[in-house]
Structure formats: C-alpha cells, structure tokens
Amino acid sequence: MPQIKAAVCHEFGKPLVVENVELRAPIGGEVEVTLAACAICHSDITYASGAWGGSLPAVYGHEAAGHVTAVGDGVHGVKVGDPVVVTLIRSCGTCAPCSSGKPTICDTSYDGDHGPLKTVDGGKLHQAMATGGFAEKVVVDHSQVVRIPENMDLAAASLLACGVITGVGAVVNAAQLRAGQDVVVIGAGGVGLNAIQGARIAGARRIVAIDMSEEKLEIAKDFGATDTVLGTQENPWRAAKEALGRGADAVFVTVGAAGAYNDAPRYIAKGGKVVMVGMPPSGAMSQYEPGNFAAAGQSLIGSKMGDAVIKRDIPWMIDLYGQGRLKLDELISEKYSLDQINEAIESTKTGTAKRNVIVF
To answer: Mind listing the domains of the chain with CATH numbers?
Structure first.
C-alpha cells in the first residue's frame, strides 16, 4: 500500500508526530486528493486535546484544498487534475436530512477507524472527521469535494472548507439574516470574523463584535464590524445594546465556551435569536430561564458548519471572493510546513492567529 507523510496524534494533549502512514487507493465513490494546503481549525485542537473524546491514533485536519490525483469507479462531477476544496461534510444524499437540504447533519454515520488510513505496520489509524487532512494526501467521499477555479490560490481556498462556510453560513443559512437587521458576534476568531463579514454581505445595519482581545477587535473592524465591545468589561451586553440602540436581531456565539452561551441571551431583542456555532467541550453546561424566551418570542438555533450545502454555497463564496467582497487572503496569519505543525498549533492556541495554514 502506498505511503505518505501525516501528522499523527498518538496521545491526547501531546504533540503530533509526523511519520509515514499507509493510504489505500480510492474505491467506489471515493476521490484521492493530493493536498496543497490544510488550515488549522480549533476543532482539530479540541479533538487532539481529548475534550471531545475520539479514537486514537488519529490524523486530524479537515480544512483542505488540493488536486484530484485518482478517482474510484463510482465518481462523477470531478476528474483527475481538478483543483478542489476538501470538506468534512460527507453526505449520503438520500437520508431525511440530506433529502431536505441539510447535508451537514446527514444520518449516515462514518467509521473513521475503518477508513483508507493504516499505520505502516497495517494497524488501525483513525481518519478524523472523515478527512485526515494533516497529511500529504487524503481519500474522501466524492460528496466532500467541490471543484474550484484553476487560478485560485489553494491556501485561500482551503479556508472555504470550514471556517468560512461555518461563519458566513450561520448568518445567511441558519439565521436567514435580512438586510437592515442588527447583529452581535461573540468571538472575533476565525469563525467569528467570517460571521462578521457574512453579516456585512447580508446587509446588516450594525454589527457589534465582542472579544476579550483589543487586537482582535481591531481586526474585526476590517471585516465589517461597525462597533466593538471588550468582553472583559462589566456587563458588555449593555455596551452592545447602547451601540445598537436596542437588542440584536441575531447573536452569533462563535466560541466554544459555555460562559459565552450563558450571556448570549442578554444581547438579543424581542423576537431575536441566539445562533449556536462554537462547540464547548463535552459535558460543559449552560443555563437559561426558558420563560424569558417564551415571553419575548426568542429562540436558540444550532448551526453546524453553517448549514452549508457545499456545492451551492462554496461556488458563490468564490464568486464573492473574486469580486473582492469576501476576504480570504486576509484571514491567513501564517503558513507552515507539515514538519512545523506543532508550532502552528501552539500559535493557534494563543488566540492571536486568524488562521494558520499548513502548505505542502
């Protein structure tokens, strides 16, 4: 079986190990993609820390782009040589969620322990999030890839696989934001910045960014925030409402912190909604007074991967990028080689990086 280099997690909370692994050829509806770039998402770090459990050893990474280098017999829509974005959204196309336009919550499970990856001695190697993108190549289902323009920078394209569709999609798909509405975005990291620019693109009247870092709040202005509030101040929701002149129509929680969810309802107006995007560690709890939601006609909405339909949403986002209306290049903080992946992860953990990208 062919061997490739991959960054393997052997123990939760420990540095990844770059080593040779085995990757079988694509079969059936699978596609092999030789990667040019894979961005580092906080979800990868959370999984590698053990906060969400999971199977080890594992190859993480799910925000990737590259060129198709082999296809299975059942593949249609892409061919060898095509540049593609590789996502973790693996959909069967026939279950109830897929049939109703919700492929991000496909009912058909995937067992990454029995995917295309093996250790060099033939042992189990978990393909995390159905992708395993911290590697030179991946073999994924054809439903997970979207063809992109030949001239598009692949490092920028990789961001469309998760952070961009999650943030922008939460606004346009989950919240269905209308022009003129008001928005609060809690967290100005990679996903939060995309929620901010999604709100700008959707025509929000005012967009208030909340973060614990003044540096990140300054960056949020570049992506479309009209106002910023430092989350460390007392009762930051009061400052947000003062900036808006009222409560927000939609509050997007883009950080995986239970405390942020506790406070989110304080920002919304009557009839407003909290859109739950960031994922706290397993077991973390938040607390609400349900009567307040009922009395004010408010709601909590979960949004997984921006409720994206990738073959619909990624092409129009690429078009916006080409017009200069969607920022991608500006999201990249640093580029690293695969051998530098632990350095890239540590930089991401500090919270100062927008997106660090592994380039091959």
So the answer is: 3-161+327-359 (3.90.180.10), 167-304 (3.40.50.720)
